[in-house]
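Quick one before lunch.
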Amino acid sequence: MRINWYPGHMNKARREIGKVMPKVDLLMEVLDARIPMSSENPLIPPLRGDKPFIKILNKADLADPNLTAQWVRHLEKQPGVKAIPIQKDRISEVKGLVTLARKMVPERRPGGRPMMAMILGIPNVGKSTLINTMIGRAIAKTGNKPAVTQQQARIKLGKDFVLLDTPGFLWPRLDPPECGYRLAVTGAVKDAVIEFDDIAFFAAEFMIKTYPSLLSVKYKLDVIPDTPLELLEAIAAKRGCVGKGGVVNLHKVSELFIRELRSGTMGRLSMERP
Ligand code: G4P
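Model of the guanosine-5',3'-tetraphosphate complex:
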């Protein structure tokens, strides 16, 4: 599967981040708790300096709790980093992010200016939902086009706290190539550019190796097949994705499998370990 990011956009995003960074007191990056590595913006670490950094492991309700705990320990090994698992229905924990941000930044800033926190996140990671909960009202979605810099939204949170929403800085990590697959499986890449059959094979192989018990419960399989194709065929048989003459509709079963995996109905799972 190929995802194209244009080097020109990437460079522009890098410049924009570089421009805004000196004004920023703290960074917040919304990650997908199921793929904390692939959902990270690789442009940020080299530009961050030593600014305090909150890594929000969002959609923690969908992720494997043991692995999320491991990620928290791993991420917090970096100086100045706090990692917080979050899910959208835990309102007080989401609002608590503002309190944490205030604690991580010294009280006094040059000229008495308000604290500026930059929030980043790749598309569909749940950034808008999180901002809406943090500020207690719905803001317009800032738009998802990678690195096509739109107006940065400055959202005031009280007298002395400004949240800077940066729609243009949305580059995910695409190296190694598995990252692209994981982004597609979890829904960070638009379905229009995805070939479901392709990512379903990747996801099926991952599930056979990592979470066979979730598969056997979800699809009532006594034996977990050895190969992705056999697994998808077995699911197709259970879910009526078989056409005339017993021909498996591979596209239909692939889409069904990916949607079920994404939605969490298969169980909580993480595709990356630290
Ligand atoms: P974005 O701004 O980063 O692009 O993401 P957005 O907030 O629009 O959220 C993308 C999808 O992720 C939404 O689902 C949203 O409900 C879901 N989401 C956000 N946070 C969480 C979370 O903590 N846990 C889970 N399970 N899902 C979360 P959607 O189906 O696209 O929209 P909707 O049906 O919720 O309206």
